[in-house]
Amino acid sequence: MRTSHPLSILAVTTALATTGWAVPAAAQDAGVDAVDDSATIIVTGTRRTDRTVADSAVPIDVISSDSLANSGSTETNRLLNQLVPSFNFPQPSLTDGTDSLRPATLRGLAPDQVLVLVNGKRRHLSSLLNLNGSVGRGSSGVDMNTIPPIAIERIEVLRDGASSQYGSDAIAGVINIQLKKSVGGRAQISYGKYITTMEDVKNVASVAPTTGASDNPVITLTDSDRKRRDGGTLTMATNIGLPVGDNGYLNLTAEYKDRSPTNRSGADLRRNYAAAGDSRETTIDRFWHRFGDGESKDMNFFYNAGMDVGGWELYSFGSYGVRDANGAGFYRRALDARNADWDNGGAPIYEDGYLPVITSTIHDIAVAGGLRGEAGGWNLDLSINYGSNRLDYGVEDSVNVSLGGDHSPRKFDAGGMRYGQTAVNFDAQRDLDLGFGDTSLALGAEWRNENYKIVAGEPASYAVGPYFYTEGAGVGSQVFGGFMPSSEVDASRDSFAGYVELDADLSDMFNVQVAGRYEHFSDFGDTVNGKVAARFEPIEGLALRGSVSTGFRAPGMAQQFFSTTSTVNLTGVGLVEVGTFPVGSPIAVALGAEPLKPEKSLNFSGGVVFNMVRGLNITVDYYNIKIKDRITLTENLQGQDIRDALEKAGLAGSSARFFINGIDTRTQGLDVVASYRLPDMGIGKLTLTAGYNLNDTKITDRRTFSGFTADRLFARPESLRLTDGQPSNKLNVGLDWESGPAGLTLRGNRYGSVFIPVGSEGDIDVAKGAAPGDLTLSPKWVVDLEFRFRPVDAVQLAVGANNLLDEYPDRTPYGVVDGYDYGLNNAYLPYSSYSPFGFSGRFVYGRVSVDF
């Protein structure tokens, strides 16, 4: 990473701001105050221009820039996890590219079932398809961590289905990120690191050498828990707002972030060397795995601009981000066959074993522009929006064993993926006088093009070397085999849509919203969706609201076209391909795959709004989301019947997996959100907030085809990961206090239990917790605290701690426990990646901010 770039840009932009381009700090927009949220004009969930949070017919959370700033987190996803009870952001490890681009969810649904907007325009997806054992498996989401929190004016979270208004993906809701337009600026630098003690993970006291040919060493652990001081994170960011003419604006943001890796591995209790009695067994550092956050260096740049052109606004906004990151794989021990050098008689290639690393270079680009204004009583907006995400994989400290140690590189280009999106939108809105209250009519059209590509890696990253046949060595670069030329794809699709929306106050007490949308996709055809929402306020300050809508999610481009294969040598058969295949590939079709259909949803919600007490706002909303034809990735289908079916079709193969419209689900739950601004008691401004989410997902139906049972297509572990792999409930509470130059923020998040289906006995009908070995992560409180002080008006100093009490998820068992053999892997992987708050421990930080 060329760190001179962010440093120089930060310096230049700060210098411009301090030489007269910006106005004094007093004019800076500090963001939406939490106590005024109910009066905030919203732009999500309706195209009406005067709708506020308090009188919305659907639930919307508004998160201010101040709320985003008062934390040690500098990742947007982590901040939303702290602030929105129905938002979940686990931080898995050892999941290939997902370590560098982690998924997030809303209301327990998939990452691609929530629509993300920036300034009301659709944000492009990432090119990464999550495949390896994480929440959101089989989906692609938006990388919101490319959006610096300092660039955000506010975030509006619509917790309701909105496909009829915005199109595909808006099943769980919509997250609309509004960029700053304000004049003024802020430059800040923060640094923090983890200062933590790993709960129930011990150091090594002594190691007795192995005696037998296959024995593990006898390892004695200490009584004390392991302490870690790692994960140092430096973030430098600046935001500058400049006036353009009388009514224009130019807002610029630059951010540089450098995060060192964390390691929460335990001691590996297995033998490392092949020879019995090898003295090195007693001296090697047995914490040779790396389990935790990967290393990451990010540069992100945003702009948001607008100017007056003859009474119309010409606007544009965009971003460029680059992330150089890496995540470790599993350690290959010295005796591992994946470390054998057959050029030299099978001796270890790496004398003490090796830790292969997957590197990810991600380029993210977006630009939007348009013209909006009034003509003939209509508010018109014509825009074009382009975004792309490019991920290139590399593999380091690795080897292609099949080539032999003397002929294999140690560093590989493994290929990559590309996703691009172009959208053209026309929106029109006007107020109508129908004689019974304010009425808004909106209509519009959209054309969207999506493109998906896979690029092959260098030949050595996937090559079948000479030792593959005779010694059974692994093929391709260890930890991540490169994309083969047969996996390359360049596919596109178009969609055309039209919508209409009517928002009418039928009386002072009663509001109704009706919306409908027609959309045609070039790959699967038409879809029509509608929505009706209403709000009734019989008493001022007490209102009832509800909605019913249909929705859809188009099959993801990656779900249709992703392919990654490897080659194996089957006795009596020869070389065959195994892996993940597109639904249209000959192998998938021979096994019964059909073209993917869109997921369809039916959303119900109903709630109550209470704000009869000055300063107190409470909302309670029930939701029920039924989804038909959810897209799932099959299990790895293998066995003699698979080989026979492929042979009958003239194909060679032994196993395969692909995407299908596999299940129907029902998700229901309850959201409670409250805030209270206490009356002035002479102790400063004091605001209390609370949020609670109760969520439950069930699989209501399963598909079968070609003789495959439901269990074989989507087995128990993946079924329960989808239904129970996220917290069943979550509680957020917060306190914000400001008095003169001092301020304090205290937040607590209680994450409910999470179920981990370790056991695999029985079929899909085995109840949760009924199979031996299943685990449940117990509920945990995570507390964050920050104290702020301004020695002068323009400078703010802050210190704080995320996870102040150093909480960890329950330690996973290893060895034989209660008659079940968990093996030894959990000895060095002590915490589950299902943990909804990660497993890094206490993060202590400091921050300096300068307003100008």
Automatic annotation (TrEMBL):
Keywords: Cell outer membrane, Membrane, Receptor, Signal, TonB box, Transmembrane, Transmembrane beta strand, Transport
Pfam hit, one: Plug
Domain of life: Bacteria
Keyword Secreted: no
Family indicated by similarity: Belongs to the TonB-dependent receptor family.
Domain TonB-dependent receptor-like beta-barrel: 318-804
Membrane topology (UniProt): Multi-pass membrane protein
UniProt-annotated location(s): Cell outer membrane
GO CC, one annotated term: cell outer membrane
SUPFAM superfamilies noted in UniProt: Porins
Cleaved signal peptide residues: 1-17
Protein name listed in UniProt: Iron complex outermembrane receptor protein
CDD domains on file: ligand_gated_channel
Residue ranges of every copy of the TonB-dependent receptor plug domain listed in the record: 54-174
